[in-house]
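Propose amino acids for all 399 sites.
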C-alpha cells in the first residue's frame, strides 16, 4: 500500500480527531488528484507522527475519509461489520423491542460512527442508505449485508445515491426485501408522522431535529406558533400535540399543504384555519405581511435551508441570517420564544451564537439566549466542522 504524505496542519487535525482529508492536505496534490475512487491509501507525515488509512471517495466536502489510525486494521467486510456493530450498540435504547415511542432514527452517521461518506436511517423496520461518493458506493454490498446480518428483522432496504449519476441510472431505489407502504407511518415521542421512502431525497421528516421538536411540544401549551420553512409541518404538529392554541405553517412549496394536513390528520388534529393555518408563500413575504399587520407570535420556529432561491430573492445563512433574526425578533411576542436553526456546516457555531446574540441584545425586546441544541445522540460526530452541522438557538423575549 502506497503512503501519501500530508502537510503538518492536516496531520495535526487528524491526530486531533478530524477525519476528512482534502486535496490541499497532501504535500503532492498532483498525485492525490489521480487517486481512484474506492482506493484505500496510507497516510503519513514528514515526522512519521501520523499512521492512518483512508478511503478515497470524492464529494463536495473533500477527497477521502480516514477510517483508522491503526495500520494493522484492514478495510474488509469484517471491519465494516464490526463498525456497524459498534454503531448499533450506541443506539441500543432506541432499538430496544420495548421502546415503541420512537420508531424512526439514524442507525449509522458516517464519520461520527467511524466511516465517512454514508449514512443509514431506520424507519420502523425499513432502512434507507445514503451514499455520498462513488468510492464508498463500491462497497455497498458489504455494508448492506453487514447490517442485515446484524439486524435480520429489517423488512426492506432503500438506497439513495447522493453523488452524480448517469441519466439512465436511478438515484433513489428500493434494493432489497419488502416495499414500504406509501406512506409509511412512523412515530417520534409518540407523535405519528408520514414518510415516503423511495420517492424523493427527503422522506418527510428531518430526523436530526427530534430533540427540538420535543422541546416545542413541551413548551407550546396555549401558545400561538409560527413555523417558517415548514416543509411537511412536523414542528407545527409537535406544537399542536403539545397544546398550542394556534399554529401557522409557511412554506413556498405547493406540496406543503397536503403534506402538512396529512401529518395533522394522523394525530387526530383538524389542520384547518383558524386554529391551524397552512400557507404556500415566500417566507420573507409572510414576515413582511406580519410586520405590516402588527402580528406577533408566542413561539417562532425558523429552520431555513443553508441556501434558498425564489423568483424574488436568494437567501444565504451566513450572509442573511442576521437580518432574518432581526425581523423574527420583531414579530416575537413579549415573553415569547424564538427558535433559530441552521444546518449550514460552514456557519460555525461560535459565529452563529455571537451574531444572533448581538441582534437579540440590541433589540428593543431584549432577547436572551436560554438554550441551544445540536445533533441528537443517534447523530454522533467527529471533530470535523462538517460533521457538527446542526445549530439550534432558543431566544426568550424579556419584554
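Proposal:
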Amino acid at each position: 500500500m502506497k503512503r501519501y504524505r500530508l502537510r503538518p496542519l492536516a496531520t495535526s487535525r487528524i491526530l486531533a480527531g478530524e477525519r476528512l482529508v482534502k486535496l490541499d492536505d497532501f504535500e503532492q496534490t498532483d498525485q492525490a488528484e489521480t487517486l481512484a475512487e474506492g482506493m484505500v491509501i496510507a497516510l503519513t507525515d514528514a515526522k512519521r507522527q501520523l499512521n492512518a488509512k483512508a478511503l478515497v471517495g470524492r464529494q463536495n466536502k473533500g477527497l477521502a475519509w480516514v477510517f483508522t489510525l491503526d495500520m494493522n486494521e484492514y478495510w474488509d467486510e469484517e471491519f465494516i461489520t464490526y463498525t456497524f456493530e459498534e454503531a448499533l450498540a450506541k443506539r441500543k435504547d432506541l432499538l430496544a423491542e420495548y421502546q415503541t415511542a420512537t420508531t424512526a432514527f439514524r442507525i449509522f452517521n458516517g464519520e461520527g460512527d467511524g466511516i465517512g461518506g454514508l449514512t443509514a436511517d431506520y424507519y420502523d423496520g425499513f432502512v434507507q442508505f445514503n451514499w455520498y461518493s462513488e468510492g464508498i458506493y463500491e462497497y455497498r454490498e458489504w455494508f448492506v449485508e453487514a447490517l442485515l446480518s446484524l439486524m435480520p428483522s429489517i423488512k426492506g432496504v432503500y438506497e439513495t445515491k447522493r453523488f452524480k449519476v448517469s441519466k439512465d441510472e436511478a438515484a433513489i431505489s428500493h434494493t432489497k426485501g419488502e416495499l414500504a407502504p406509501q406512506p409509511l407511518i412512523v412515530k417520534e415521542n409518540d407523535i405519528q408522522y408520514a414518510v415516503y421512502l423511495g420517492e424523493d431525497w427527503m422522506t418527510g421528516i428531518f430526523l436530526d431535529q427530534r430533540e427540538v421538536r420535543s422541546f416545542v411540544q413541551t413548551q407550546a401549551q396555549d401558545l400561538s406558533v409560527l413555523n417558517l420553512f415548514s416543509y411537511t409541518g412536523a414542528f407545527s404538529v409537535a406544537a399542536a400535540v403539545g397544546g398550542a392554541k394556534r399554529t401557522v405553517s409557511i412554506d413556498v412549496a405547493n406540496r406543503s399543504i397536503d403534506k402538512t394536513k396529512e401529518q395533522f390528520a394522523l394525530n387526530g388534529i383538524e389542520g384547518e384555519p383558524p386554529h391551524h393555518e397552512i400557507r404556500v408563500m415566500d417566507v420573507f413575504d409572510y414576515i413582511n405581511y406580519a410586520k405590516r399587520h402588527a402580528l406577533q407570535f408566542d413561539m417562532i420556529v425558523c429552520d431555513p435551508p443553508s441556501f434558498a432561491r425564489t423568483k424574488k430573492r436568494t437567501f444565504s445563512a451566513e450572509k442573511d441570517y442576521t437580518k432574518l433574526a432581526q425581523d423574527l425578533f420583531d414579530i416575537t411576542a413579549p415573553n415569547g420564544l424564538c427558535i433559530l436553526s441552521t444546518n449550514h456546516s460552514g456557519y460555525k457555531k461560535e459565529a452563529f451564537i455571537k451574531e444572533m446574540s448581538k441582534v437579540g441584545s440590541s433589540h428593543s425586546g431584549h432577547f436572551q439566549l436560554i438554550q441551544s441544541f445540536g445533533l441528537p445522540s443517534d447523530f454522533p460526530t467527529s471533530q470535523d466542522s462538517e460533521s457538527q452541522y446542526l445549530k439550534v438557538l432558543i431566544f426568550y423575549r424579556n419584554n
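The first strand starts at residue 3 and ends at 5. Residues 77-90 form the longest helix (14 residues).
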